Amino acid sequence: MRKMQNSVHYFKEERILKKLAVLALLLCMMFMLSVCALAASGEASAEASDEADRPESVTVEGASITGEIAGWMYTEDDGVLTVIQSPQTVKSEMVVLLPGLIGEKKVDALGNGNAVMSNNKLNGSWVLFPEELGFIASSAIHDFNDTVAWVIPGTVGVSDDPWLSCSGYVITAAGSPAADAAALNGKDVESIDGLAKFTVSAGENGYITPAGTYYLPAEIAGLGTQLTVTSAENYKIASVTVDGKTTTFDEMMQEYVIDYKFSADSEAISAEFEPLAADET
After folding, report:
1. With bands split at pLDDT 50, 70 and 90, how would you rate the model's confidence at 20?
2. How much is the mean pLDDT over the chain?
3. Which terminus of the chain has a smaller tally of CB atoms within 10 A, N or C?
């Protein structure tokens, strides 16, 4: 009898141990599955974060950033200079100036098939393109939903569809590429003839960004934009002249931001540069 009781207890204990082993195995498998799921989620989040942080127009195959001035990113391939990304400040400017020059080099194209700038939703904003710009590519500008007008010199080449979700009429020359693009996109056109010119230029060994020659509608008087003066390496800003008034710098200054308001007297902004002194290098 005692042997039988011992056998019963033994089999009960064996069954319990087997159940515990199966339960432990199941818990181990669930733990491993959870770890794998968390790892996959982390990788997906990292990839999503990378995609969110990556400038949209840099994702084009074969494009690589070769330079950046004051937030304007550009590539240069066989001497062709293409602006591919704007700084974030264009989202909050009432007057957006596009660069026609990077240093002494003309900008051949604005955009490479992706958005250069997007999401300016300020009511009453204006966008001014410079004479020096060669071409405005397809889909270069996205979501400028409350823009009043686009001022595009007749010499600038324009794709059939440079705008995506952008309001506003076009100010340009009759029969110009910009006029043709406006017609294709259902935008009204007004003449650029008679508008005053406004020039932004830098001397050797530095930059003003944006830079170029712009046409100014009278309606932008009182509205503002931002320009950045930057010296080349081993140089500093000697002076900045705004509409005939010159500011010089006693201390070493290698970057200077101009918060500029347009007026009926707007004419030009320029900057000069000089080498760093021996005790400044």
Report:
1. low
2. 84
3. N
d(CA 230, CA 271): 9
> 1-19 burial by CB neighbour count: b if 16+ within 10 A, else e?
eeeeeeeeeeeeeeeeeee
pLDDT at 3: 40
C-alpha–C-alpha distance, residues 243 and 183, integer Å: 36
CA 190 – CA 195 distance, rounded (Å): 11
* Residues 212-248 pLDDT 10s: 999 999 999 999 999 999 999 999 999 999 999 999 9
* C-alpha to C-alpha distance for 190 and 21, rounded to whole angstroms: 83
